[in-house]
Every structure is written in C-alpha cells, then in structure tokens.
Amino acid sequence: MKVVETIGLSKTYVQDFLGVEYGRIKVRFRNRKVEALKDLTLSVEEGEIFGLLGPNGAGKTTAIKILMEIHYATRGKAYLMGRPLGDLRVKRRIGFLPENPYFYDYLKGWEFLDFYGQLYGMPRGARRARIEELLHLVGLSHAANLPLKGYSKGMNQRIGLAQCLLNDPQLVILDEPQSGLDPLGRKEVRDIILRLREEGRTVLFSSHILSDAEMICDRVAILYKGELVDVGSMNELLSAKTEQYELVVSGLAEAEIEKLGSGARRVLVSEGQALLIYGDEGSVQEAVRRTIQAGGKIESMTPRKESLEDYFIRQVGGGARPRSKGGAA
Amino acid sequence: MSGQTIDSASVSGSGGRRIVGLAVLLIVVFLLFRTVLTGDFKQLFGSAQTGLSRQTIRFNTGADLLSLLLLAATAAGLVFTRIGSIALNTFREAVRNRVLYFILFFAIILMGASVVTRQLVYREEERFIVHLGLSCISFFGLMVAVFVGISLVYNELERKTIYTIVSKPIHRYQFLLGKYFGLLLTVYVIVAVMTFFFFFVMNYQSRITEEKIDELIYKVEADGLYTLQENAGWIRTSYLLKSAGASALRAAQSLAGFAHGPVTQNIMIVVVMYCLELMIVTALAILYSSFSTPTLSAVFTVLTFLAGRLNEDMMRLAENLMKKSMELQSATSFADLTLSAQIKIRLAEFVSLVVPNLDSLNVTSKALYQDTMQVWRYPVLYSICYTGCVLLISILIFRKRNFK
Ligand SMILES: Nc1ncnc2c1ncn2[C@@H]1O[C@H](COP(=O)(O)OP(=O)(O)OP(=O)(O)O)[C@@H](O)[C@H]1O
Ligand SMILES: [Mg+2]
Questions:
Q1: Nearest atom within ligand 1 for CA of residue A71
Q2: Which of B5, B290, B316, B346 has its CA 20 to 30 Å from the CA of residue A59?
C-alpha cells in the first residue's frame, strides 16, 4: 500500500503586502514569487524508511508542510494512507515532528504531552501511561517536571519526538529529526527510527545529513531547487562497484612508502603511518604483499563504495550548485 | 539521564492544583451566568430582586438552576471536547504570562487610589468613585482582550506551535474557537477579579471612618474626658481587619448577585454589559490576528472599539442626513433624493451596521444617574449574533490560510 503519494505537487510562494499568505485569497501587491516545489511525484510504501534528501532550500520542508496541511499546494494532489489530505481519521494515525520545533514553553514536559494527548482524544489513564513510556524512550524522564522554557535544543528535539509518537502512529513524518542533537542523540534517534520500522511503521524523514540517511533508509528521494532529481533504493542510486581502496600501513621506511605510492592515486603520510588510496583491486593486493615483505604492518584496508555524499555531489554538484550554500551537504 | 521514572507524586500534585484551578474558574463562570440571568430574565422567573435589603441573601431558584445547567454544559465542554482542551491551554498560557499581572496590578493600584481620592472629593463622591472603578474595569478589560489576546494568537503562528497542532486530529475551526473561548475566559476572570476588588474597596471605604475608630479606641471617663485605651493599636488593627474581611465577604456576595443593594446591582449590570462588549472585542481581536500582524491587529481592534463606541453618532448622522436632504430637496421619499445624497445616507447606515454597536452596550452613565435598571435581552442577543458572525469570518479566513 502506498502510505504517502504525491502527484505533481507544486508550491509557489507569493508574498503579498502584509507579508502574509492567504492561500486562495490572493491579495497581490509587490509580488515576490518563489517556486519552492515543482511537480513532485513520489510515493512511500508501507513499512519502509523513506529519506527526503537535498541541500538547504531544496523544498523538503515545503513538501512536508503540504502533507501536514500547514501550507496548501499551488498545484497537484497528495494522499496519505490512500485518502486525500484533511481527513482527521488519517491524522489520528500520523505523527509529525517539524524542523526546529518549538513548543508551548510555559508548559512542563509532561503537561505538554498531556495536552497533545487530549487533542488525540486519549483517555486520562492511557495518556499517563503513554507519557511515562515515551519520556523514558527519548531519555527525558528526569525533565518531566521542567518547563519547556528550560529545555536545551536537543531536549526540545527529543520532546518533539515523544510528541509525535503519542498516538502510536502508523506513519511518522520527521523533518530533520537529528538536527540539534549530539552524536549520541543522533544515534538514539537512528535507533528509534529503526525500531519504528521493526514495529511495522512507515517513516518519512528529511535530512541533509547524508551519512545518517545512508545508514537507515530503504529508499531516498533527492530534491534540488524544488525538483525531484532521483528516487530509488540506496542500491539503485549508488553504483554498486567499489570505487577505491584505502590502505593504512605503518612501520615502513620512507623509501618503501614512496615505492608503494607509485601505483596509488594519493599518498598521505603522518606520524609513521601512511594512507594510500588505490583505484583497483590488483594494485592494492600488490601493495599489501610488498608491505608484508618489507616488514611493515597493515593497519587497515577498506574498500570504499560510492557514498550518498559522492552521489549527491555528482548529481547536484559542480556548477549547478549555489556556491553560498556549498558547504551544507 | 538519571532518575528514569517520573516523580509521580508531583505529577498528581499538579493534577490536584489543576482541579482547584478549574473549580475556581467554573465558579467565576457560574457567577457570570447567574448575574446575567438574575439581571436579565427576572420577569421570567418571577422573583423580584429590586429593593432587596442590603443584608439579606436571597436565592432565585429559576436563575440558579439555569445557571447551574449552563455551568455544567460549560464544564463538560471544557473538559471533554478538543475545543475545551485548547481553551484551557490558552487560559493556562495567559495565566502564566506576566503581562496579565502587570495589567491587573495597575488596575488594582488605580482603584485602590480612589481610597485616597475620596478624601479630596466631597460632593458626588460615590458617583465619582463608581465612575472611576467602572472605567478601570472597562479599560483594563479591553487591554487584556487586545494585547494578551492578540499576542496569544500571534505567538502560535510566530513560534510555529501551530505546526504540530495542525497535524493533530482537530479541525482548524476547533483550534480558533478554542483560542477564542480561552481568551474570553481569561478576560472574564480578569474582569471578575477587578470587579471583586472594586466592590471590596467601596465596601471598605463606607465602613471605615475616623469617627468610628476614635469611638472604639477612646474610653469616656466618669469626668467626661476621653482616654486612650491600653490596647488601642490592637483594637484599631483588629477593627480594620474585621472590616476588610466583612468587605471581602460582601464583595463576593455582590459579585454573585446574592446581595444587591441598588448601587451594586447597577454596577453588576454595567459590568455584564462590559462582558458582552468584551465578547465582541475579543472576537474582533481574533479576526484581525487571523490574517494580519499583531501591531496592525491591535490598531484595528482598538479603532473598531472606538468606532463601536461612537456608533450611535453614526446612526444619528444617517438620520440627520436623511432629514436634512429631504428638507433641502423638498423630497417626499428616499427615492426622490439625488443619487449622491442617497449614497451618503446608505454609507452611513452601512457603517453603523457593520461596526459593532458598542454604544448600546455602554450603560455606565445610566447606571450612575438612575436608581434601578435592568439588562434587556436585546444586547445579549445582539452581542451573541455579532460575535458569531465575526468568528465565522475568522474561521473562513483561517481555514484557507498558509502558516508562515
Ligand atoms: N513561507 C515562505 N514564504 C516564502 N518562501 C518560502 C517560504 N518557505 C520556504 N520558502 C522558500 O522555499 C524554498 C524551499 O524551502 P524549504 O524550507 O522547503 O527548504 P528545505 O529543503 O527544507 O531546506 P533546509 O534544509 O534548509 O531545511 C526556499 O527557497 C525558501 O526560501
Ligand atoms: Mg527544511
């Protein structure tokens, strides 16, 4: 079943004279148009982890906002769980975490979750049990009685995650769930997402941190300047063959390293160790053999496949990429 | 990540506090209902309240029962519906906002200051104090409706808390109505607190006089001389405290509509009219903030309020225009007038129709110069209908709106 389906979804932002958008009510004056999303057609299957990737300003958040009805699409259609947007029965089975979430900061952690539980129509007892469970899951049990005002960015992200899991959702939509988290937090979020899939849920999340997406996504879509560049499973998108081999050796004389380096693409030497990068399997095996002969030690040998990062730079990189935002990916 | 279990004692403790808070809230709502009912529908229930002696407490069975019923409906609405959840959360946000207390603080300072002023104004003193107090209630009620109201709606959009609300299974109209009722609740609670304080000050003032205190603390000796009693300080303090307590009790009774004298009854009627007015103004604040920036919304709301207070003038203008042009053009019917005159008249009529007629709700001067008065049904109906229209328009705008 297609849990999320979009057909030709487009969004053009028009800013009018009061600086506010009225949707269909068009008060046009000093127009400034931004085509944030152009003809996005994709679908997310049940039970998969789907990554929406792209550099800053690619339109990831816009797409998600349209799905959540925060914005209305200019053109195109979207379906969640086979129904058009706006169906409350569907919303009952969805969890959503916006990017850089901000919640009612005058509420305590548990008050906040309790309020949202009320919006789901959960009975009092069920709310309490679920809140306790979720606070534990996101590691905020100690902060349950702290006002959200006193939460750090990462804690805010965590309570946001708890908030979107309150109703035991079938579909979880997360906009940059890992932003603002420390490495441990990132790993925890990754684990939570993987667990959600194990429990049979569908996860749609956006990110520009490619390594995170690479590890957990079943399929990804790549957006660039509002357009869908590519969509598919990780294997389909990334060329399967190994691109290069990285060999780290130690205990060799400089002359030996120089000799090894003759067949390598690159050589980096530091503190008695040398990193040698080879382009084909034959030469790396030759290098390993010679190192052992010369009495050196093999520290590591890693075959490198093309990463999502490499792919990304290949696809949207080069001259097409806006320079000012170049460092983001 | 230490201490992995929630401190459940404190959680339930807060739950208890919440129930107390809710109870207080409901009592206030009950009082409002009761006042409206006892003031307005007294003929319906057949118990005469006018001319009540100042000391008796009398119940009005019909009004009391109906108030209880309405109260139960409100309570159920707040507790069991999503609109209610949002309303209570909005109320909670307002109550945890410092601005509210600043406004309340100034209102109370100003009313308390009338204690001092009283000694400066001899004639008409009661009227003066009543006027000052009522103006305070009206003005600060408006402040709460406009500034707290607009900022509460704006914050939702600006801080993007609306994002997660929209993703929950509630309709946008439920959100907007929840905001509205939460705000109204806040405004009414503030009005009730101010009114209580106002009654308290009035009561306290009329109780305490220097002569009475002197009478208490001096003893008349056999030779006709006055001597200060030994524990004069204590007598004085306890007298003041007792008076304060009694005043507070009477203020609560007056607020509840249980023990009206002619003055307090009139004041209550004026306050109820203010509540109707604030019902409209709060709806307007919601309307404006559903599509524009907070500064603009505040300006629009205050301007509409002022225009509303001048509405009768606009009506009179339309009438006068009509009369004048009829005379000048010696016409017999409206159709005979020139087009420009017709347009002018229709425009004036249109404006007076669209702008809320707050003038008719403002009965302050009547209350000051008449002995007894009644609330009529018309303003209640008018306010409810006008508010309904404004909220409907807000919902229509809000429904189709993109959030920032
Ligand atoms: N409310 C808005 N009004 C006008 N333009 C907007 C609005 N929101 C987004 N945009 C524009 O739409 C484009 C896409 O923005 P979007 O937020 O979807 O990007 P994103 O992929 O989520 O980027 P990021 O990784 O930075 O979160 C941007 O060029 C942005 O300037
Ligand atoms: Mg984004």
A1: 1
A2: B290
Do the Cβ atoms of A22 and B397 come within 8 Å?
yes
Average pLDDT for B293-305: 88
B372 pLDDT band, cuts 50/70/90, is low
In angstroms, what separates the C-alpha of B345 from chain A's closest C-alpha?
30
Where exactly does CATH 3.30.70.980 map onto chain A? 242-305
A122 Cα to chain B: minimum distance (Å): 11
pLDDT tens-digit profile of B252-293?
877 776 655 666 777 877 888 888 899 999 999 999 988 878
**Residue A83 CA: distances (Å) to CA of A2, A274, B35, B164:** 10, 58, 49, 20
Helices B262-289 and B149-158 pack at an angle, to 10 degrees, of 20
- pLDDT digit string (tens) for A162-194? 999 999 999 999 998 888 788 888 888 889 899
Looking at residue B207, what is its pLDDT? Answer: 75
Judged by a CB distance cut-off of 8 A, whether residue A120 touches chain B is: yes
Q: Which residues contact B22 (CB under 8 A, 6 or more apart)?
A: B75, B78, B79, B88
**A111 touches B: beta carbon within 8 Å:** yes
**How many residues can be counted in chain A?**
329
The answer for A 159-188 residues in CB contact with B (under 8 A) is 160, 163-164, 173
Parts of chain A with a pLDDT under 50:
19, 319-329
Going by the DSSP 8-state scheme, the letter that residue B145 receives in this structure is: I
Chain B CA closest to residue A27: B291
In whole angstroms, give the CA distance from residue B186 to residue B87.
10
- Tell me chain A's radius of gyration from C-alpha atoms: 24
The CATH superfamily assigned to A2-93+169-238 is P-loop containing nucleotide triphosphate hydrolases (3.40.50.300)
Q: What is the pTM of this model?
A: 0.80
Cα dist from B1 to A4, A137, A215, B5, B239, whole Å: 36, 11, 26, 10, 57
**Cβ atoms of A297 and A275 closer than 8 Å:** no
- Indicate which atom in ligand 1 lies nearest the CA of residue A63: 18
Q: Confirm or reject contact between A200 and chain B (CB < 8 A).
A: no
Q: How many CB atoms lie within 10 A of CB A209?
A: 15
Complex prediction ipTM:
0.76
CB of A34 shorter than 6 A to ligand 1? yes
| pLDDT tens sequence across A97-147 | 998 888 888 899 999 999 999 999 898 899 999 999 999 988 889 988 999
Every domain range in chain A assigned CATH 3.40.50.300? 2-93+169-238
Q: Do residues A22 and B291 lie in contact, with contact meaning Cβ atoms separated by under 8 Å?
A: yes
b or e along A104-125 (b: 16 or more beta carbons within 10 Å of the residue's beta carbon)?
A: bbbbbbbbbbbbbbbbbebeee
Which chain B residue lies closest to A133 (C-alpha atoms)? B5
Write the secondary structure of B181-203 as one string of H (helix), E (strand) and C (coil): HHHHHHHHHHHHHHHHHHHHHHH
- Distance from the alpha carbon of residue A96 to the mean position of ligand 2, in angstroms: 14
pLDDT of residue A24: 52
Interface contact B166-A69, CB threshold 8 A: yes
Q: Which CATH class is domain A242-305?
A: alpha beta
